[in-house]
Amino acid sequence: MTDELRIGLQELLRKAQMERDADFLRESVRSLSQTLMEMEVEEHIGAARHQRTPERTGVRNGYRDRQWDTRVGTVELEVPRVRDGSYFPSLLEPRRKAERALSAVVQEAYVHGVSTRKVDELVQALGMDGISKSQVSRLCEELDAEVERFRNRELTGSYPYVWLDATYVKARQDGQVVSTAVVIAIGLNAKSGQREVLGLDVGPSEDGAFWLSFLRSLVARGLSGVRLVTSDAHQGLKGAIEAVLTGASWQRCRVHFMRNALSTVPKEAQQMVGATIRTVFAQPDVQSAHQQWRRVADGFRGRFAKLAELMDEAEEDVLAYVVFPKEHWQKIWSNNPLERLNKEVKRRTEVVGIFPDESAVVRLVGAILNEQHDEWQVGKRYFGAGSLAKLEPDRGGEEQPGGHQAALIGD
């Protein structure tokens, strides 16, 4: 074996001198590693190749090709095989850790919205061969189990405030690129005072049946104690809230309402109209808020009849927040807490462009939401304990079996 190693190295040296081969170092590593594996497998089975001895404990079974990523580049090895599968080269053990590290890097890059091409460049920058789209997909599938655990975990405790919204991404379905709805729910945990990502789902459209199924899945996992739900005024969503979260109030997001309201008036009047409506949200209590709302609506009735009609219809929904503690108003009267999260989801998914299928959407968005959920748990409380305690006097009785005692709010 020593003679074979010497001959092999001499051949490499002669090749390097004659051809000035730039891969000399990598070839040297390959030759040395190959020889070390041969020595190791001989010791492992107690016999050299083709040698028959009483001490022999195993039978060789050819070779398998294996790439080994090293600091001098990727080395092509022929790893000796033993029939019972009991041999693995000790020099390749470190690669198992390296593979896990590489997998983590690729997954982290994917979750942060890095494109496949950029992931390939990243891997090459680490001194390894490039990575194909199929390899990226295979590595990222390892995220699926973690995402599914997160999506299906049990929801414990009470969630007095819930925010619901949807965003859209492009995905392939039956050979076509379609707009795919991603619905997300976040809630305030009454015990911890922290926001939590309650769940997400992906479907072909944001219709009533989809929202109904989504909300039922949240309740099945333990969602309870809902007092107020904030969302936009999507009819399918409103119907699902009424059907599933009975006894909860619905808050129509004031930001979405303002967009709807301003769309009913000429552009040159929008600034004035917006400023006038916002005076309602500066009122200090329930009575004055409703009085100011009607005052503003009546003031627009002669000039902007459509706007006045919209305000008449939306008063109770847009002002649902006023029956809750005043310290909570700015955080519950709009979908802003969820809108900011949706923007981050959009930022990262836009890098991908078109997803290969819905499962890939769930994988990436689920990982992003899981990451945000964890950050919220170690961050500053969204509601203080003293502030949350003010919700208790408003309960007005025992919670219903579904756990929803008060109202839901939406856009």
Topology record:
Layout: H1 2-19, H2 24-45, E1 60-70, E2 73-82, H3 93-111, H4 116-125, H5 133-140, H6 143-151, E3 161-173, E4 176-188, E5 195-203, H7 208-220, E6 228-231, H8 235-244, E7 249-252, H9 254-262, H10 270-278, H11 286-301, H12 305-318, H13 329-332, H14 336-352, E8 354-355, H15 358-378, H16 385-389
Parallel strand pairs: 3-6, 3-8, 6-7
Antiparallel strand pairs: 1-2, 3-4, 4-5
Helix pairs in contact: 1-2, 6-15, 7-8, 9-12, 11-12, 14-15
Structure notes:
The protein is of the alpha/beta class and 411 residues long. It has 3 domains: 2-88, no CATH class; 95-140, no CATH class; 156-394. It contains 16 helices and 8 strands. Strands 3, 4, 5, 6, 7 and 8 form a 6-stranded mixed sheet that branches. A hairpin with a 2-residue loop joins β3 (161-173) and β4 (176-188). It is elongated, with a radius of gyration of 31 Å. The termini are far apart. Residues 394-411 have low confidence and may be disordered.
Supply database-style keywords:
alpha/beta, 16% strand, single chain, 411 residues
